[in-house]
């Protein structure tokens, strides 16, 4: 035990006074100024975490709303077109209710109904493709059913068998045509 006491005395003597002084500023750093900075940093970190969680929740809400909007757009995409076609259906039903229709009244009713249908197509950007004879074949709008000998340039339209249709700039149905050889 005496050996331990001697060693401790030697260690205490060997420690220069500067090291003891260095311990005091270290203790000063852990004093009130350090604790205040630590508390401020923790408060700021908590504030940043809260802001992050709020931003993340807002992003999720925006994503969910966008998905709902897309679903509604798909569900009700043809609503305007359907509204435009309802009067056409009404006109056709009224024509069928006539007990003694004359040929002239039927023809007049069909013409008026066709005007309603054309108007509905125009309002909803449904365009008719009806190429004229002699027009150059456009494979993006026309479908050649057959090639026939004709007195016109090759690959030009001779007759239209069925009209085609486009919605805005997208082909809905190509026009069916015969083409000159």
Can you offer a commentary on this structure?
The chain has a three-stranded antiparallel beta sheet with strand order 1-4-5. The radius of gyration is 44 Å and the shape is elongated. It is of the alpha+beta class. Helix 4 runs antiparallel to helix 5. About 3% of the residues have low confidence. 3% of the residues are buried. The chain contains five helices and six strands. Strand 4 and strand 5 form a beta hairpin.
Features:
single chain; 181 residues; alpha+beta; 3-stranded antiparallel beta sheet; 3-stranded mixed beta sheet; 5 helices; 6 strands; 17% strand; elongated
Number of strands: 6
Rg over C-alpha atoms, rounded to the nearest angstrom:
44 Å
How far from one another are the termini? 122 Å
Strand line-up in the sheet with most strands? 1-4-5
Unreliable segments of 5+ consecutive residues: 19-23
The total count of helices amounts to: 5
Query: For the residues shown, what is the average pLDDT?
Result: 86
Percentage of residues assigned to helices:
55-70%
The helix/strand series, from N terminus to C terminus, equals: HHHHHEEEEEE
The largest sheet, given as strand count, sense and whether it forms a barrel, is: 3 strands, antiparallel
Strand content: 15-25%
Query: Which overall shape is indicated by the principal axes computed on the Cα atoms?
Result: elongated
Which class do the helix and strand fractions yield? alpha+beta
């Amino acid at each position: 035990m005496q050996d331990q006491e001697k060693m401790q005395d030697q260690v205490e003597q060997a420690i220069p006074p500067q090291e003891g002084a260095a311990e005091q500023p270290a203790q000063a750093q852990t004093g009130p100024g350090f604790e205040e900075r630590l508390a401020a940093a923790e408060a700021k970190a908590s504030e940043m975490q809260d802001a992050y969680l709020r931003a993340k929740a807002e992003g999720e809400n925006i994503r969910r709303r966008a998905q709902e909007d897309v679903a509604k757009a798909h569900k009700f995409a043809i609503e305007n077109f359907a509204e435009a076609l309802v009067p056409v259906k009404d006109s056709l039903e009224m024509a069928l209710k006539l007990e003694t229709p004359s040929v002239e009244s039927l023809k007049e009713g069909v013409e008026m109904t066709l005007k309603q249908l054309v108007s509905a197509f125009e309002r909803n950007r449904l365009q008719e493709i009806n190429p004229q004879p002699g027009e150059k074949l456009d494979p993006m709008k026309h479908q050649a059913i057959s090639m026939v000998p004709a007195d016109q340039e090759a690959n030009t339209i001779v007759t239209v068998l069925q009209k085609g249709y486009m919605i805005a700039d997208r082909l809905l149905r190509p026009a069916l045509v015969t083409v000159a050889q």
